[in-house]
Each structure stands twice: as structure tokens, then as C-alpha cells.
Design goal:
Number of strands: 2
Distance between the termini: 52 Å
Strand order of the largest sheet: 1-2
Number of domains: 1
Order of helices and strands: HHHHEHHHHE
Strand content: under 5%
Shape: globular
Helix content: 40-55%
Length: about 200
């Protein structure tokens, strides 16, 4: 007797079907990164970034290796703006040069490797690679800082306050900071076999 519940015209699931991919993702155990591990990871990454900022400030501001710095150019009214731009961008370039491979292949920075957590897409729990959202996650404060430098009058303090409040969101049940909401990410325990998003680099 034929089974009426079976549709002979229904396509079977294959690895290319969206439903198949959803099934794979649902089998990945989701363990959110521990708050202390994330804090330590941020401290390590922040310390690394701070070293780059200090190096750029010393080189461009006061001059090193016999080269005059921007701070010595009294006749250059735009020196402070140029110095700020260098400090704002060059350390981040160095940061991504060092961490780029690990972010692409593992969803980790050096700090997150040390604490065994990784950054993944919030909806699929997959590694994002070096797509636009991973840059947005780290760099979302840079344009705000540029605006604050131009506007002044307490704006830098306001942006610092917003960033601090955004970090405190880690104590919410979702354990997601403001930059996680902005980039559509969350931080989970590291898995070496975690798949990547299809649009990752």
C-alpha cells in the first residue's frame, strides 16, 4: 500500500541545500565564552594595541632614530591632527597584521587564543573570517573618535563612557558586549572543527 505521506516530487536534502547547513549548525554545541576568559583576552589584546599606540606616538610625536617628530613642527598647524590619525589607524593596521591569519582561520586574536575562546557569527555559530563585520567589531569606535577629536568639548569622554557601558553588557544573560550587537557576533568556547561562513575570505 503506497505511503501518502511521502511526496515523490520533493527534493532530497543535499549538502548544498540550506536545510542541510542548518542541521549541521544545530549540532554544534554552543558554549558561551566565560566572562573572565573574555576579560583576560581583552586585556591581552588591549595591551598589544597600546604598545603599538605608544610606539607610533613616540615615533611621530617626538621623533626617533634622529628623525624629527610632528610635535617638533611648531609651524605646522595640522601636526596634531596628523598625529591623531596616525595613532588612530597605524596601531590597528599592525594589530590586524599580527592577528589577521588567526581571525581568518580560527576566529581568534592572540588574547582569545590564550583564553581558548573565539568569535563567531551570532546566528550560525560559524567562524566569520576577515569579512566586513569582523573589522566593524573592532573598529566601530574609530570614526566616533575622529569626530570627537574634531568636535571636542567633552565628546571624547562621552564616547569613552559609551564604550565602557558597552563592555559592561558582558554581564547580561547573553554575555554580548555592544560591539557584538553591532557586528552580529558572540564569543564562544573554541572548537577546532567549527565551520566557516560561506562568505568568509
Amino acid at each position: 500500500m503506497p505511503n501518502d505521506s511521502i511526496n515523490p516530487y520533493e527534493a532530497s536534502l543535499t549538502p548544498q541545500d540550506p536545510g542541510f547547513g542548518d542541521q549541521i549548525d544545530s549540532e554544534i554545541p554552543l558554549v558561551l565564552g566565560r566572562r573572565f576568559a573574555r576579560l583576560v583576552a581583552n586585556i591581552v589584546d588591549g595591551f598589544l594595541l597600546m604598545i603599538f599606540m605608544i610606539a607610533v606616538a613616540l615615533f611621530a610625536g617626538t621623533g626617533l632614530m634622529g628623525m624629527p617628530g610632528l610635535g617638533q613642527f611648531d609651524q605646522n598647524p595640522g601636526a596634531s591632527v596628523v598625529l591623531f590619525l596616525l595613532i588612530a589607524f597605524v596601531p590597528w593596521i599592525a594589530f590586524f597584521v599580527i592577528n589577521g591569519y588567526f581571525l581568518q582561520s580560527r576566529g581568534q586574536t592572540l588574547g582569545k587564543m590564550a583564553t581558548n575562546v573565539q568569535i563567531v557569527d551570532y546566528k550560525t555559530d560559524r567562524i566569520m573570517g576577515l569579512n566586513g563585520r569582523i573589522f566593524l567589531r573592532f573598529l566601530w569606535t574609530v570614526p566616533l573618535s575622529l569626530i570627537a577629536e574634531l568636535v571636542g568639548s567633552g565628546t571624547p569622554q562621552l564616547i569613552s563612557f559609551v564604550y565602557f557601558v558597552g563592555v559592561l553588557l558582558i554581564f547580561s544573560p547573553s554575555k554580548r558586549c555592544l560591539h557584538d550587537y553591532i557586528a552580529g557576533t558572540h564569543v564562544v568556547e573554541y572548537r577546532p572543527d567549527r565551520p566557516k561562513l560561506n562568505d568568509s575570505i
